[in-house]
Amino acid sequence: MSAYRRVLLQDDFDRFAKLSRDDNPIHCDPEFAAKSHFGATVAHGMLLYACICKALTEQVGPGMVQLEQTLMFPNPTYAGDLLNVDLQVGAESGGVLDIATGISKVGAGGTAIPVATGRCCVAAPDAAISAVPPASHPMQQGDAELYGLRPGMSADSTRAFSIADLDEYGDLSGDRNPIFRDDAAARARGFARRIVPWPLLAGMFSDLLGTRLPGRGTGWMKQELRYPAVAYPDEALTAKVSIVRLRADKELVNLSTRIHAGDGRPVCEGEALVLVRNLESKSGPRAA
């Protein structure tokens, strides 16, 4: 089903950069982006994910809880592109819905060009929330070095999301899921209080990948996300990305991606695939 249409503008890119702290120049610096293979600034992958979450809230229902999401970004999204956000609801098992998620842009002659494709599992608003087993991302066979990057290198950051951050997410994305906005609604769903939206959590990876490791100029190709637990505003969350594979011939890097709360509970796990063709610096010191 076609959920809705939206046009993202450079102001939206800039707002998400401030919210996520990912000011990767492919999103925010027209001069840098013009010299990249993109040719102009492009949308953050997690900004597109936020558009998907808005559709999930509206189509599945307020109070839906996301358990898993996979995303691929086969084509870039430029400022001014007309986007179609689509959901295809598949099988339901024990209150968990399997949903194909997609965003396409309108190309020449009205052709649909995919820019974000994937699948997700969500707990319906009136369903019990299933436990998500932990992910495992061991080292994989690959190259020993690429532009100063090596397997095992990692970067991390810690932040706490404020209520103001959640409000800005809602205003920017249009996602009005009440469990992000109202403590009573979140308690009715079984949580202690309102929770941090999933695209904001995953935006911590956007920050690390796009500014630290691999670094500025990184392009997101694919992301797998799993949510073993929810995160709350004002609690310290630590995100970590670690290189598990390098493919020098294709300029690709695989990284494990994890976020845990201060009490040690994991709130987001997965793996990223990124393109490092446009790195601002292809040599020099990097994260440990």
Please give the count of helices.
7
Structural domains: how many = 1
Q: Name the CATH architecture.
A: Roll
How confident overall, as mean pLDDT? 93
> What sort of overall outline do the alpha carbons produce when their principal axes are compared?
globular
- Measured between the Cα atoms of the first and last residue, the distance is 45 Å
- Total number of strands: 10
Beta content: 25-35%
What sequence of helices (H) and strands (E) makes up the elements? EHHHHEEEEEHHHEEEE
Helix-and-strand structural type: alpha+beta
What would the CATH topology be? Answer: Thiol Ester Dehydrase, Chain A
CATH superfamily: Hotdog Thioesterase
Question: How helix-rich are the residues, as a percent range?
Answer: 10-25%
With strands numbered from the N-terminus, the spatial order across the biggest sheet is: 1-3-4-5-2-7-10-9-8-6
- Low-pLDDT runs: none
> Main β-sheet, in a few words?
10 strands, antiparallel
CATH class: Alpha Beta
What radius of gyration results from the CA coordinates?
18 Å
Give a description of the structure.
- By secondary structure, this protein is α+β, with helices and mostly antiparallel strands.
- It has one domain (about 1-275): Thiol Ester Dehydrase, Chain A.
- It is built from seven helices and ten strands.
- The protein has a ten-stranded antiparallel sheet, covered by helices on one side.
- It starts with a strand and ends in a 13-residue tail after the last strand.
